[in-house]
Amino acid sequence: MTYSGVHDLGAVRQLWQLLEPVHAIVYFAPECYEEAAALGYAPDERWPMYFAFRAAPLGPAGADLVSALFYSFSPRMVRRYVDRSWRTAPADRVLAARATAARRALQALLGERTASPELAEAAHLVRRAAQAAGTAGRPLAAANAALPWPEEPHAVLWQAATILREHRGDGHLVALQAHHLDPVESLVLHSGAGAAPAEAFQNREWTADEWNAARARLAAQGLLAEDGTATPAGLALRTAVEKLTDQLAAAPWDALSPQETARLAELLLPPVLDIVGAGLLPAQGTLGIGMKYDYAS
């Protein structure tokens, strides 16, 4: 059974591309480092903050659960950070700090735009989609959807973007497993398809042996060429993963009409350009946001 809703998958993908920077700023803005440091997290790298902030809606989750949900990270890396996350600060205090961090960061980045009717309209539309997101089988989406809503429009926008982002991410793991790609293989094939150089994925802390073994498995299936680039079969598999991901992410947007989603894309572009233009987000992303896929082939 495939998605048969009212929206073109290209529109679903565009909305993800626009909302991802809104969500991601909480892991990079100086205000977020400040809030995390006030709780006792080391401010000289982002990973203590990242694992605490992203996992906090789950409560004091253990490393095994977080590793299962943060699919692409080495379990060793997850354990190193998560084992000490809740000793540094309890999850409820981390959640409060995260909300404050997101609100402060967007206020600093967007300035007077946070009080504009356009941003309030965008926040309202994204919230409608987020509240329509089904959470069965989607633990990170469910955990974030259970949190109370803030009042300020820019804070509402961040929370709604986060629910939809995690809803999409939960579905992406389903798509990877449906196509029999384990965590390392998913990164190797993603890199081979052109999402980012292999070096960009080193921050997930898989060893060279683990990476090379995954590359050999994919090559044996005819998915990678000798130079590590994806073969036509590999590109087709990656396209199938992305298509299923977009299909699984589409249903919440059925709460809006195509006219409303087009209006939302128009409303989101100026604030997203403000966020991206600030230069806080990585210049070399690993999500493949700019990649194009031909779902018709």
Give a description of the structure:
The protein has one domain (10-276). 63% of the residues lie in helices and 0% in strands. It has 13 helices and no strands. It is globular, with a radius of gyration of 19 Å.
The biggest sheet, with number of strands, parallel, antiparallel or mixed sense and barrel status, is:
none
Please give the share of residues in helix: 55-70%
What value does the average pLDDT take?
Answer: 95
Number of E-state strands: 0
Question: Secondary-structure blueprint of this entry?
Answer:
Elements: H1 9-24, H2 30-39, H3 47-55, H4 63-69, H5 75-88, H6 91-110, H7 117-131, H8 139-145, H9 153-178, H10 183-192, H11 208-220, H12 232-250, H13 258-277
Summarize the structure.
The chain has 297 residues and is an all-alpha fold.
Features:
297 residues; mainly alpha; globular
